[in-house]
Every structure is written in structure tokens, then in C-alpha cells.
Design goal:
With 283 residues, the chain is mainly α. It has 13 helices and 8 strands. It folds into 3 domains: 135 residues, no CATH class; 49 residues, no CATH class; 71 residues, no CATH class. Helix content is 40%, strand content 9%. A two-stranded antiparallel sheet has the order 1-2. It has a two-stranded antiparallel ribbon with strand order 3-6. A two-stranded parallel ribbon has the order 4-5. Helix 5 links the parallel strand 4 and strand 5. 36% of the residues are buried. The structure holds zinc ion (ZN). Zinc ion binds next to strand 6.
Length: 283
């Protein structure tokens, strides 16, 4: 997982939200006062173009990687979604649980629950309404794999409104996570909030079988030439040969390795595997 630092783009993000709020939501009252209404992520926020603009900015701040699983989202035909860290429908209590974490980008100084923002006369910004604000919006993959109907899916849609600790906003996150030999992801001894990390990994299905297999394979193929691995998209013989050189080295892994071989000899799975090149020589 990568640390996401939005500070360099925060002004651009706030400009998008400010323009949207002023053009679509601000009501000037007769006495010189004003208030905001109809702050609607699923409606006028998208229609105004602000949603697309925030998505582009989010991708830029994340180097085009999914905030959770590290899938490269820059390739064509990738379904990219905008993820609300604090859920759109968060109750006051749930909202408070996130802001109480004290994580930069998600504090009370930066965000206000949208339901508590609208209708208040002469409200000052920031804090910004949480449903339409860059700090609370991350680019995420759609969590699907070639077996679209399978149970091994991940990230934004699978998470729903479940609690996540905003690990991507922790500067040391890379040093706090270990990817095990079998591809399992888990917090390590450096992690200050291991229970919260574990909970987040469960809620976003980051240890689903497909992701574990992909990470295990990147670990096994760390010494292979990257360009050769790309060439394997169109060269199944070479792919088979390379996979056979790294799999079946441990007897107790033979059944798992058979499944991996079968899966990644399918062209669409190999292409999906390559979307996770962030893991090349990183685990
Ligand atoms: Zn993802």
C-alpha cells in the first residue's frame, strides 16, 4: 500500500468543490446572508463535472493506483470508482469516529458532515462537506477480477459502508505492512494500530484469494525481467515455462501452485496480474 499525500493538490481540489458549491448549492438570502442546499454527490455533483475533475485529481495524487489494492488504474477499460472514506450516509456518531482518529486530511478542521453543513446560515468553508470533498474521496478499482461472478473480489464496492482505518493517509504505512510468502497482507510490529489495519484489510477483502495469488506470484517472479513478463501476454509457451520455473518448489504447496498455474495461464488473468506491477520487486 502507498501513502497518499494530497497536500500538493489540495488547493486544486478545494477549487473544484468551491466552484461546485457556489454554482449549484449556494442560496443568497435576502438579508445579505447565504446558505447551501442540495449538496448531492449522486446528482448535481456528477452532472456539474466536478466528480470527474476530483477523480482525475485523486488518480494524480495516487500515481494512478487503487488506494487499497494497488491495481494500476491508468490502463484503458479499467473501471475506476470514487471511494468515500467516510461513507456518504455516515451518522453523526460514525462521522465522529473517523475525525476522532486525528488522521491528517480527515479531521474536524478539514471536514464537516454534509448533513450538518447544509442549511446553516453564513457557514464558513473549510471545513468542507464530506460527500463532495477531495480529502474524503479516493480513486479505487471496482474490485472485479476476470471471474466476475466469483466470490474473490475486493476494494470499494465490497467494502460498502464498513469501517476502514485510512491507512493510505499514514506516512509510514509501507513500513507497517508485510506481505507474506503466500501473498497474505498483514500489519507488522511497526504498526501502531494493528487491530484497525486488520479490520480494514478484512472489510476491503485485501486478502481475497485472487489478490493473495497475484502477490504470491509477484514475489516468486521478482528476479524475472519485467519486460519478459509483459511479453508473456502474447506468448503462452514462454509464460508456462516461466511459471513452471518458480512454482512447485515446495511439496506442501503443490495443490495451491496447481491452482495458480491454471488461473494465470488464462490470458485475462495474466493481464490482471500485470495490472499489479506495483508489487514487482517490492515484496
Ligand atoms: Zn482495488
Amino acid at each position: 500500500m502507498n501513502y497518499v499525500d494530497k497536500d500538493a493538490l489540495i488547493q486544486a481540489g478545494h477549487s473544484i468543490t468551491d466552484d461546485y458549491l457556489n454554482s449549484h448549492c449556494r442560496i443568497d438570502d435576502a438579508n445579505g446572508s447565504y446558505h447551501y442546499q442540495n449538496v448531492d454527490y449522486d446528482g448535481n455533483f456528477g452532472d456539474s463535472g466536478a466528480k470527474d475533475a476530483i477523480l482525475r485529481l485523486a488518480l494524480a495524487s495516487q500515481d494512478n493506483y487503487c488506494c487499497y489494492c494497488m491495481r494500476d488504474l491508468s490502463y484503458q477499460n479499467q473501471q475506476v470508482t470514487l471511494e468515500h472514506v467516510i461513507p456518504q450516509s455516515a451518522s453523526a456518531e460514525e462521522f465522529g469516529r473517523y475525525t476522532a482518529l486525528g488522521v491528517h486530511s480527515l479531521t474536524d478542521a478539514e471536514l464537516i458532515r454534509t448533513a450538518d453543513f447544509t442549511g446553516v446560515q453564513n457557514i464558513a468553508i473549510p471545513p468542507c462537506p464530506h460527500t463532495v470533498t477531495f480529502e474524503n474521496l479516493m480513486a479505487s478499482c471496482d474490485g472485479t477480477f476476470p471471474d466476475k461472478n466469483g466470490t474473490s473480489q475486493c476494494c470499494n464496492h465490497k467494502r460498502g459502508n464498513d469501517f476502514v482505518y485510512p491507512m493510505f493517509y499514514i506516512a509510514s504505512v509501507r513500513d507497517e505492512i508485510t506481505y507474506m510468502e503466500d501473498g497474505t497482507m498483514q500489519p507488522n510490529a511497526n504498526c501502531a494500530y494493528p487491530d484497525e489495519y486488520r479490520q480494514t484489510i478484512v472489510h476491503t477483502r485485501l486478502n481475497c484469494q485472487n489478490l493473495k495469488d497475484i502477490r504470491k506470484l509477484w514475489r516468486l517472479l521478482a528476479s524475472e525481467n519485467y519486460e519478459v513478463l509483459v511479453t508473456c501476454v502474447g506468448d503462452r509457451n514462454l509464460r508456462s515455462k516461466i511459471l513452471m520455473t518458480v512454482l512447485f518448489k515446495k511439496e506442501d504447496q503443490s495443490e495451491a501452485d496447481s491452482k495458480i498455474l491454471c488461473k494465470f495461464m488464462k490470458d485475462d488473468y495474466w493481464k490482471t496480474f500485470l495490472l499489479y506491477h506495483w508489487f514487482y520487486n517490492r515484496i
